[in-house]
Amino acid sequence: MASIKAGRTIRRLLLLGIIAALGFYGWSEYQRMAREHPERFPWTELSLADPIGPFTGDKLAGLGNEPLRCLALVDEVALANNFAPPVANSEPACGYADGISMAALTIAPSPGDLVTACPIAAAMHLWARDVVAPAAATHLGTEVTAFTHLGSYNCRRLYGRTSGNWSRHATADALDISGFVLADGRRLTLLADWDGGSEAEQAFLREVRNGACELFSSTLSPDYNAAHADHFHLAMREEAVGWSACR
After folding, report:
1. Which of 44, 100, 166, 217 could pair with 121 in a Cys bridge, judged by C-beta atoms 3.0 to 4.6 Å apart?
2. How many CB atoms lie within 10 A of CB 152?
3. In whole angstroms, what is the distance from residue 118 CA to residue 211 CA?
4. Residue 4: its pLDDT value, please?
5. pLDDT in tens, 93-112
6. Dihedral over Cα of 221, 147, 145, 50: its sign
7. Which InterPro entries match (predicted)?
């Protein structure tokens, strides 16, 4: 009887040892993955030096509640050298204090005149680097040298209505991209090329729209409605963590 109990004890100890070893291995493997691929985990800190991961969009949206954190992040990619003066408005729902000039991302025309809230600038940096650039190389065989736009800050309500919810443009948390200037001299526009461009051009435009959906809280394209026939509406909303609109 004693030998049976001793055998059971040994087996239990062996099982506990195996469980402990597996736990230690699992924890070590997690730490390694978190170090090498922090973009794959929802609780790791966002860095604009990292590639896009499944939780990058949520982390970008959360920057709306952490303006100092956002400004520190864009400093990593030299956007912080382009801080813009705060804008106040008699309408309390309008204005911003975390403006970033988009000159570093080569926005055309008048790049020095375009300012967005910091989370938009951070998302645009990742979109340009990890979505637009590879899509242009794959589908168009060239580079994008500039983005064309219809503006960011605009103290207005949704669709210019006189009442109702305020647009994300009212706080510069939205940017309307109307097209792309290519290194080979072409100029693609959403209005002309979404359905009227070559097969490769249409594939490029749809791929960069889909990639924007992974980063911005709201991505509205010509597929959404006639009001967006000529641009991508790219917006960030700090309360939208875990939710996004992609149309």
Report:
1. 100
2. 25
3. 19
4. 59
5. 999 999 998 877 777 665 45
6. negative
7. Extensin-like_C
Whether residue 70 contacts residue 118, with contact meaning beta carbons closer than 8 Å, is answered with yes
Largest CA-CA distance found in the chain, in angstroms, rounded: 89
For the chain, where are the alpha helices, taking DSSP H only?
2-36, 56-62, 67-75, 118-127, 133-135, 190-193, 199-213
- Long-range contacts of residues 103-110, Cβ cutoff 8 Å, at least 24 apart: 104/77, 104/78, 104/79, 105/79, 105/147, 106/145, 106/146, 106/147, 107/146, 107/147, 107/148, 107/149, 108/146, 108/147, 108/148, 108/149, 108/181, 109/148
Burial of 232 by CB count in 10 Å (0-12 exposed, 13-18 middle, 19+ buried)? buried
Report the C-alpha gap between 137 and 146 in whole angstroms.
15
Intra-chain end-to-end CA distance of the chain, in Å? 71
Strand partners, 99: 117
For residue 117, what is the enclosing H or E element? strand 115-117
Separation of alpha carbons 20 and 199, rounded Å: 56
pLDDT in tens, 134-185: 999 999 999 999 999 999 999 999 988 999 999 999 999 999 999 999 999 9
Expressed in percent and rounded to 5, the helix, strand and coil fractions of the chain are 50, 15, 35
Length of the chain: 247
Question: 218, 168 in Cβ contact below 8 A?
Answer: yes
Cis bond before residue 109 (omega within 30° of 0): yes
Where in the chain are the domains?
Answer: 1-36, 46-246
Cβ-in-10-Å burial (0-12, 13-18, 19+) of 12 comes to exposed
